[in-house]
Amino acid sequence: MKNTTQIHVSHAQIILGIDLGTSGIRAAIVKRPFLQNKEENRFPEQGLDQILFTDSVPFTANNLGATASLRIDQSDCKPQSLSENASVQDPMVWIAALEQLLKQLSMRFDLAKIDAIICDATSSTVMLTDDQGTLLSNALMYNDAQAISAASIIKEVPVEQQTAANGASSSLAKTLYLSQLIDSAKPKLVVHQIDWLNNYFCDFLKDGICYSDQNNLLKFGYDPVSGQYPDWLQNMTREYAPNIILPVVGVPGEALAPITGNMQTTWGFSQNCRVLYGTTDSIAGFFASGAQKKNDAVSSLGSTLAIKQLINVPIFNTESGLYSHKVKDLWLLGGASNGGGKVLLDYYVLPQIIWMDHFLQALWRLQNLEGKRDWLIHFPVLHDCHNLGDYYALSSIGERFPIQDSQMVAILETRPSQSLQSINLENFPIKHFSEVLSSRELSEALKQCFADNLEIILQSAQHFASIVQGLVQIEKKSFELLSKQTGDGKTANLYTVGGGSKNRYWQLLRQVHLENCLQSAFSLDAAYGVTRLANFS
């Protein structure tokens, strides 16, 4: 670690980081010394950061804004029925959540003291507006996979043109799909989720221009190696989306625009406050962790599972959904799976997840102490919960990384027909799991509490365990792929971020089946992590 007494600090900057994720919107206000040495400023020592405030507005069924409509105005849209691969939201609800967040922050902190605002948002969430910033479509979310025919067009791009704009969930496929649905001959702006946030502060869409960052544009087809839109992309948009205006590209962390006068009046921001180009949520999570040297890697388990590793040179592999983001003068190699914590939430509510996690922890501990567990003989996943079965956890059809297959389906144990909702798990409080000293005692205690319902609980636990093992299997396959591509073999340090990191059974499996290099994250907050990219030099 650096000797902080040798770091030359001239003054401090206050940065507002905003993370628009899948479960809500979060903010972190960070005070950071401005370092005179440019090398130190690239990734300042995290020990010098002071997180002044954090706040959040969670999404619920009421404010999430899920919609069955692709269009704001259906009169100008070709008839379209949404498939099971659809995931659509109204972008206006993000602004409502952002305004609630700013209101909460302004009650605790003087926003006039903020020097810069930098945001991150989910990658490949995209919509169209006209050239005055009026929405033409709702947003196709990161996991929307309706654009199958558009993806097949992109797939025809010559193999030597490696790109991250692959599959029906890429923002390029979604843009082509939306453009063909909307008949309007007027110019259309491609707007990613982060651009919609930045526009709230800067109001640039009304001028017929969308400013976006090279990280969010990677899955649109932007080439960060050459620093431009490749010819094949420009030719494709001219043919299939002729009225599309491509975004102006900026570097994450660099200045985008000053904040508007309306923002100064409404929220009290200073006229000197600048909005900076941001990044994706998984990249923000990466830098929250503490990772910053070559071969450091981060697993981010939120609604989806994203894997990234810091390397010196870019690598792209279209067939496996592997791509590289440029961050400052380094590269982040990795990809994002469609599998993640959302799979658990598709089947179980949070109290059930917590209960099942403690149950599996107890089985894990008791398996270390003894071998015979006859009462679990018909539940092989529970009988040997240390093992990693050949499972794969997806919440919908299709996978993008480490396997790219739009028709891939989950591989899980069968879920019992009877729901856990009808069973009161509180009859066996979580604290009881730490009190049992043997597998036999656990078996007898569960039988006493649940009687005839024990079979349903064990079937549910086996299904639950297969999901968690399926998540570890995705992670394991991802690192095997990264190792093969880089030729380095091992990660330097493996950090974990995201709400899913609270799942202890997941962590226990990872310690056994992944490299023994797991590190505690400095922070789990992407709203803090995105501030690490802020560049004041």
UniProtKB/TrEMBL annotation:
<keyword id="KW-0418">Kinase</keyword>
<dbReference type="InterPro" id="IPR043129">
    <property type="entry name" value="ATPase_NBD"/>
</dbReference>
<comment type="similarity">
    <text>Belongs to the FGGY kinase family.</text>
</comment>
<keyword id="KW-0808">Transferase</keyword>
<protein>
    <recommendedName>
        <fullName>Carbohydrate kinase</fullName>
    </recommendedName>
</protein>
